[in-house]
């Protein structure tokens, strides 16, 4: 058995299927180090789980930095392979890497591998643990491929494409689609036309750029007053966004539903939409949208996004509009409502993006972990 330790801030619910799958792979004995049962912002952390061992650790902010002694605890546990979160703000990560390597562990840092607000200092802080570790595990193949520009040898670079568990989405879809007439009755009751409805799902925060989407809606409604935008989510921007909708005169065509956490309830709305209209920074929402066959329409400012932007192929499973140009966003969204063939083609491509051997799936993500784990053990023997 290979003893594998992974250090995380918390165990968010969307990561549990990843770690459970990894723990179930042949020859893997997994231990998770995290703050158990603790929340991180809007993310709820899990407590102890059955599928693998857990160790409760602490973490706290010290100004702009993080004091995370859990790294040291994991480093002293003498795992065969130890996977640290690739945090540039961690005060203890470099020390933990040195301790782990001296103790005979192969060390991996796992993360984005880039910063949305990069600077020479941030780059140096990011590269320090990367160059100390045996390997770097990226959230996607695109950024993994770019790492050579930072001086990281290609043989030490691996990717585990960031994914969400699609089983809950498939189950929720089946609840609606397996019962004849249920979805149509819902649409009639809610007064929505699925050929004229767009959806946005996320927390309502400044980086999501809802103001751009509302201004695009104003332009679209001048051409087709029957269009509807469904906004699912809550957050700091909700009051100001609802106020802007009234100021623009689009409040009757924009429905603010608040946060919806029940997948079966959310499915009815997703199955009644043309695409995911997402004017700002994209993350795992892309995988959620693709699970429903919803193409993504988002900004072409690639640097504002998470690594999941690399799953979106412009003109295939989504569209990119010129950043900040609500006129261009309006044109892109109108294409979906006016062109049934386009949306059918893109919907199929969106669904395929989270399926199969090359899709952004949990099994493929875990395959990336396993490949990295096997490789660093060989590296450890050679060092």
Structure report:
The chain is α/β, with parallel strands linked by helices and 383 residues long. It folds into two domains: 2-163 and 359-374, Rossmann fold (3-Layer(aba) Sandwich), CATH 3.40.50.2000; 167-352, Rossmann fold (3-Layer(aba) Sandwich). The chain is 39% helix and 17% strand. It has 14 helices and 15 strands. The strands form four sheets. Strands 3-2-1-6-7-8-9 form a seven-stranded parallel β-sheet, sandwiched between helices. Strands 10-11-12 form a three-stranded parallel β-sheet, with no helix packed on it. The protein has a three-stranded parallel β-sheet with strand order 13-14-15. The longest helix has 21 residues, at 362-382. It is elongated, with a radius of gyration of 22 Å. It starts with a strand and ends with a helix. The mean pLDDT is 94.
Write a compact overview of the structure shown.
The chain is an alpha/beta fold.
Q: What's the structural blueprint in terms of helices and strands?
A:
Layout: E1 2-7, H1 16-24, E2 28-34, E3 53-56, E4 60-62, E5 65-67, H2 70-75, E6 81-85, H3 93-102, E7 106-111, H4 120-132, E8 135-138, H5 141-146, E9 157-159, H6 167-177, H7 182-190, E10 197-201, H8 210-223, E11 228-232, H9 238-248, E12 254-258, H10 263-270, E13 276-277, H11 285-291, E14 296-299, E15 318-321, H12 326-338, H13 340-352, H14 362-382
Parallel strand pairs: 1-2, 1-6, 2-3, 6-7, 7-8, 8-9, 10-11, 11-12, 13-14, 14-15
Antiparallel strand pairs: 4-5
Helix pairs in contact: 1-14, 6-10, 8-9, 8-12
